[in-house]
Write a structure and sequence with these properties.
Helix content is 35%, strand content 0%. The chain is mainly α. It has a single domain, classed as Orthogonal Bundle (Cytochrome Bc1 Complex, Chain D, domain 2), CATH 1.10.760. The chain is globular.
Length: 146
């Protein structure tokens, strides 16, 4: 009991939560192997999310094989060939929370709500994309082969 109390005090002093927060996914090595939504992802819906400048904002930083969208980004790697460079599992983790792979990334966590700073009040506790939207984007990205 003494050890548990000490651990709780230590974690509290470090600002960590003393209760476990269960994530709706399991990270294995550098990916999330299992889908996070009940329904299989749809590549067509995923492409629409990637192209939509009001939803995912992917083309703000990335360029991709979406010729009808002008003014694509060049801050991040091109999405062309994403399915050749990364597995479905790896793509899923990068969309869910790219900081798990690269803590210095500028890519926002599209499916994480904890540990964020400067979140506007109406968005606190909300993810950028739903679990289904994440799966749709993953389904699209895996089709992008070199």
């Amino acid at each position: 009991m003494r050890g548990a109390r000490f651990l709780a005090v230590l974690l509290g002093a470090l600002g960590a939560a003393t209760t476990a927060h269960a994530e709706p996914y399991v990270v294995v090595q550098d990916g999330i192997p299992k889908p996070i939504a009940a329904e299989r992802g749809d590549p067509g819906r995923g492409r629409a999310i990637v192209a939509n400048r009001s939803v995912g904002l992917c083309l703000l930083c990335h360029s991709g094989p979406i010729p009808e969208e002008r003014f694509q980004g060049n801050l991040a790697p091109s999405l062309a060939g994403a399915g050749s460079r990364s597995s479905e599992s790896q793509l899923r983790l990068r969309i869910v929370d790219a900081a798990r792979i690269n803590p210095d990334t500028i890519m926002p966590p599209y499916f994480r709500t904890d540990g964020l700073r400067n979140v506007a009040q109406p968005f606190v506790g909300k993810t950028i994309l739903t679990a289904q939207q994440v799966e749709d984007v993953v389904a699209y990205l895996v089709t992008l082969k070199d």
